[in-house]
Amino acid sequence: MFRNQYDTDVTTWSPAGRLFQVEYAMEAVKQGSATIGLRSKTHVVLGCVNKANSELSSHQKKIFKVDDHIGVAIAGLTADGRVLSRYMRNECINYNFTYESPLPVGRLVVQLADKAQVCTQRSWKRPYGVGLLVAGLDESGAHLYYNCPSGNYFEYQAFAIGSRSQAAKTYLERRFENFADSSRDDLVKDALMAIRETLQGETLKSSICTVAVVGVGEPFHILDQETVQQMINAFEIVGEQEGPAAEPDAAAGQEAAAEQGGSTDEGVAPMDI
Amino acid sequence: MNFTASKQPENCLLGPESDSQRTLYPYVTGTSVVALKYKDGILMAADMGGSYGSTLRYKSVERMKPIGKHSLLGASGEISDFQEILKYLDELILYDNMWDDGNSLGPKEVHNYLTRVMYNRRNKFNPLWNSLVLGGVKKGEKYLGTVSMIGVNFEDNHVATGFGNHLARPILRQEWHENLSFEDGVKLLEKCMRVLLYRDRSAINKLQIAKITEEGMTISPPYSLKTYWEFSAFENPTQGAVGSW
Lengths: 273, 245
Fold this sequence. Notes:
The complex is a heterodimer of chains A (273) and B (245).
Chain A: H1 20-31, E1 35-39, E2 43-49, E3 63-67, E4 70-76, H2 78-99, H3 105-118, E5 130-138, E6 141-147, E7 153-155, E8 158-161, H4 165-175, H5 184-199, E9 209-215, E10 218-222, H6 225-241
Antiparallel strand pairs in A: 1-2, 1-8, 2-9, 3-4, 4-5, 5-6, 6-7, 9-10
Helix pairs in contact in A: 4-5
Chain B: E1 28-30, E2 33-37, E3 41-47, E4 50-52, E5 55-58, E6 64-67, E7 71-78, H1 79-98, H2 107-123, E8 130-138, E9 141-147, E10 153-155, E11 158-160, H3 163-175, H4 182-199, E12 207-213, E13 217-219
Antiparallel strand pairs in B: 1-4, 1-7, 2-3, 2-11, 3-12, 4-5, 6-7, 7-8, 8-9, 9-10, 12-13
InterPro entries (chain B): Ntn_hydrolases_N, Proteasome_alpha, Proteasome_beta4, Proteasome_bsu_CS, Proteasome_sua/b, Proteasome_suB-type
GO biological process, one term (chain B): proteolysis involved in protein catabolic process
Subcellular location (chain B): Cytoplasm; Nucleus
């Protein structure tokens, strides 16, 4: 973006009171592929766009299970994300060993944020270049948090990060008031539709996206490709009819990946239900 | 020159550690704690005695204390180690409260924390010389567990330490049932404590009963049990005993 004389290291303030290195780290998050999260009172769904570099390679893992009740989706430098996931898993395991109880998400998120903050105040370190959407269950219900490289964290009803996330955010902003009471399947459907928004015209297929769910009575798990594709298909049908979110598919653990096969630009307006 | 009395045998493998102070034997001890689950929560009873060997030296020792909002801890064994444990737990609860989020450590978490502490101390050959009873209620779930000085831990509907295991548990196994009323629970505990009073030399006739429910913890003022010594079996107790007088 801008070349400044105050951006050489993270421990230098600019005259305007900014830490440019931290802001550049947040840029790295914006360059990563889109990741979205949304929650109801009892479930949280994470989804991301997973494009492989070439047809020959597999795609990068962007969603990690941290514990039965916590999962995280990342955007940005996936290597940094992997390291932070390992830290989170460690913290969860240690807490569980001492207290035989799951680590409350809220506390894990604060620990993560404190860890990120350290990197903004040491001259020999750099901020983590990854944004994390942390989904988890607590005593107080389902939670979705966003941890950024600055060391800040926020709780959200729904959020999207990464490239072209604004399109998803717009979609989520229109619908978020209904999320709290959504059923699990509706939530997954909304996630898939939000992912579709970031693809801007491209066909939504289960091979280019990943969806994961955690909820009351449902440990965190990533939905398999087949299930996702079935949900996408269900939505295509529903999308054409402009009907409400009914899933004709028999399979119970379907993810709602709302994509339609046809070109998005032509004629099919975003669902305003 | 080292004046501390460390009784290390010559073939001791502890090496440089052998000079440090480790718990070798307890000095001021409390006797049994008995506890059971009842309809609304947990009832726990312990007398107020602190023995110094065979002398019944201290008679106002509170051996049951509340921990946080949801738990109650009773201890038998070395009283100073119990006080040390209370300090550890105080710090634990303090840090838990400092998070100031909607979460709090319940009885299960405290019990497991204590198990880790006791077991790790035992592994260093420097045990906290206590048998602990941890009971509580959180979100309607009743919890009652115990940890010993060597780290043995388990949960049950009724637990006891020390002599209580031998004298009170059999009574509880016969007479405990789910959803005891408060009055029945107290009567049952008093029955156990009375037997202990008759038969345990380190028991004194001054006890407290503590109750913990979802609402909170209350502990009764000290009181004493009625005893009856006119049983005919108590007259000439050694009549039929071989080799006694």
